[in-house]
Structure formats: structure tokens, C-alpha cells
Amino acid sequence: MKDFVDSTAFNAEQGNRARKLFAAVVLAALDDAIADDKKYGNGPEQIARWARSRDGREVLSCAGIDPNERVVSGLMDFVSKGVRTSVALSREESERRNAAQQAEAA
């Protein structure tokens, strides 16, 4: 019985690693689209085309993201803001955005 529990935990850990790997691919696609937007002005269209493609839908699904139109719109909005993923995920950027939102609300 102990072996069953250990193999189940191992499989769950492998699944989590795979999801993280595919999430990294999504972040890279976002960064590529942001770079395209700065260079050519077509980043939101590029990320939408990728997210709607067979490969894009597969990667999003494997990352644990439902590849629906609401997600595509969110990806397009993210790219249009032009903030690279590493910056957006940093604590400093989150704190800056929260401060800006509080200032707007006041």
C-alpha cells in the first residue's frame, strides 16, 4: 500500500512540473508578442493568433489554462500593456500597481 501512495505523489509532482514547464512556454509567448508589438505594432494580434492555433490551445491546456476567448482577450490586453512578464510577476511591480490603483480610487 505504501508503494501506491508514493507513486501517486510522484505522478502528481511530475504533473505539477509539466504544468510549470508549459506555463513558462506561455510566458515566453507573451514576451515574444510584447517584443513584436514594440517592433512591429502587432503583438496583440500575434498572441491571439497563437492562442487560437492548435499548438497554442494545446500549450494553454497543458499549462492548466482553459483556452477560451476570454483568455485570448486577457492575453491580448496583457500584451497591449507592454509590461514584460518578468516585470509583471515581480513584487515591486505588483506593489506599484496597487499603489496606483489606490491613488486612483482616492
From TrEMBL:
InterPro entries on file: DUF6280 (IPR046247)
Keywords of this entry: Elongation factor, Protein biosynthesis
GO MF terms, alphabetically ordered: translation elongation factor activity
Pfam family, one: DUF6280
Name of the protein this chain belongs to: Elongation factor P
Species: Antarctobacter heliothermus
